[in-house]
Design a protein that fits this description.
Shape: elongated
Strand content: 25-35%
Number of strands: 35
Oligomer: single chain
Strand order of the largest sheet: 21-20-19-22-26-28-34-35
Number of domains: 3
Distance between the termini: 37 Å
């Protein structure tokens, strides 16, 4: 075992003096055991650096698989690393870190504690929490300047999460002091943490409560009314179901937001059924306008409490233009289903986690060139494309700046032909089905035609596995315009992902 998370022990502690090497020895092999002792200051400089810098504590002729080491007074307040290797250090097979906690006697007690100046606060993973205690002696407040540094340095911190108590250890550091600062660890996501400082014995009567909201994954599916063919009609929700199957089968909070226009009740029912097949906790919500979308993002609804559940990621499958994500292109409600740059400022930052991730698979979200000529599928950019496309002025960049998000988007149109491009995958092909749909009346490409020969034209193609593959970059606009995803981050120049 190689671990850098310290085990807290003390001088004369009978429980934590044996480091066991889990290694099968051959007859001719021996184990070398060593120890390294270092201070908190050393730790802050280099963390628990694993290197062969210790002194030997057992002879090389010793073949024992465990190491008995008795901590002494000189080890108090320090980290002790016990490690073992067979033959050479490169064959390290055991490394454990112990923190030898010093004993401290004082008549000063802790009266109160605040986390970020509050007894109860909310913080996201990665946020900085600063906790400060107040002291008293015989019920009288003791000013911090009158508290000996030895007492301040010996304030310990206990956490209670889901009724389980354990010492506060952050990034392999045993947190000790009357004033501590640390970043909220990812293990606290979705938890209510009781943080109890103490000198002798901890109690929930002297504690701060930190609530760390969970993160929701939102997958948004637009409608296909622009070319509602046999193969195209259900491609956006098919991609949403694929995301559940491939990326979020066990995620506790994942939601498909689907613009319901032009989908039949039967289609919506089957899409929901198959999404839940891959993750039974999926929340499936029907919406019909950008206002509905923004309202849900900002406030949640009767099912989702936005105060407790922040948005960690959004993935978008829809049509798009430069500066527009069009969830209802050419539909009867298209005018209320377009998300533009002007909508960005309506999104509340507090509804999102720190640095959320957004993927837009709508066409040209990273492109701000709205010229009519550039909309032609035959248009080609030259080597100076960036002066016209201006990714730094795009909808993707605006989202990134406003939400402090990392946004991935294409500069070109996106291509959804891969949705049903199963090739020779017979297992996937055998799960194709069709869903009746009177709005489907034509084929769009040869793939649609070949499949549709087996079915009437008034049906839409579906597969319970969702899409076969994710969208890719299209061929237009072409020329020198990059085809791969671009990444957009706050305060940074948009950059290619390749």
């Amino acid at each position: 075992m190689v671990s850098n998370k310290p085990t807290i022990t003390k001088v004369n502690d009978e429980e934590n003096r044996c480091a066991v090497c889990r290694y099968n020895l051959y007859k001719s092999q021996t184990i070398t055991w060593k120890k390294t002792v270092y201070t908190l200051e050393d730790f802050k400089k280099q963390k628990h650096v694993v290197k062969d810098d210790g002194e030997e504590i057992l002879t090389k002729s010793h073949k024992g698989l465990s190491c008995q080491y008795k901590f002494s007074k000189k080890d108090e307040g320090k980290y002790v690393r016990l490690y073992a290797y067979v033959g050479r250090y490169e064959n390290l097979c055991q490394s454990e870190v112990f923190f030898v906690e010093p004993q401290h006697q004082t008549d000063i007690r802790i009266k109160h504690v605040k986390a970020n100046d509050k007894t109860e606060t909310e913080a996201m993973v990665g946020d900085t929490i600063t906790c400060i205690v107040e002291y008293h002696r015989a019920q009288k407040i003791v000013a911090p300047k009158d508290v000996p540094s030895s007492t301040k340095d010996n304030v310990k911190w206990m956490t209670r999460i889901d009724e389980k108590e354990e010492r506060l250890i952050v990034d392999d550091e045993v947190m000790r002091s009357g004033e501590i600062s640390f970043k909220v660890p990812k293990e606290w996501k979705g938890k209510e943490v009781i943080l109890m400082p103490y000198l002798n014995k901890h109690t929930v009567d002297i504690a701060a409560k930190i609530t760390v909201p969970s993160e929701e994954i939102i997958i948004i599916a637009g409608t296909e009314q622009h070319s509602a063919t046999y193969g195209n009609k259900l491609m956006f929700p098919a991609q949403a179901v694929r995301e559940i199957k491939k990326n979020y089968p066990t995620h506790k909070h994942v939601n498909i937001l689907i613009f319901k226009d032009a989908y039949t009740p039967m289609q919506l029912s089957i899409i929901k059924r198959d999404a839940k097949k891959w993750n039974n906790t999926v929340y499936f919500k029907q919406i019909n306008s950008v206002d509905d979308l923004i309202n849900y993002i900002n406030k949640g609804d009767a099912t989702i409490d936005r105060k407790k559940l922040k948005i960690g990621a959004i993935k978008i499958f829809a049509h798009g233009y430069p500066s527009i994500i069009d969830f209802g292109l050419d539909g009867k409600n298209a005018n209320i289903q377009r998300f533009t740059k002007e909508h960005v400022s309506q999104l509340k930052q507090k509804s999102f986690a720190n640095i959320p991730i957004i993927y837009s698979y709508a066409c040209r979200t990273g492109n701000s060139d709205g010229r009519k000529v550039a909309s032609s599928p035959k248009y080609k950019y030259d080597k100076d494309w960036i002066t016209l496309v201006k990714p730094e002025e795009s909808l993707a960049q605006k989202l990134s700046e406003h939400l402090n998000a990392i946004v991935y988007a294409y500069l070109r149109r996106t291509n959804y032909a891969s949705t049903w491009n199963e090739g020779e995958d017979k297992e996937y092909k055998n799960k194709y089905m069709t869903i009746e749909d009177d709005s489907v009346s034509k084929f769009y490409n040869i793939g649609d035609l070949l499949r549709a020969l087996k079915s009437p034209w008034d049906e839409a193609l579906w597969n319970e596995n969702g899409a076969y593959a994710p969208p890719t970059s299209g061929n237009s606009p072409g020329g020198e315009l990059p085809a791969n995803l671009y990444v957009f981050e706050k305060g940074k120049k948009p950059a290619s992902t390749k």
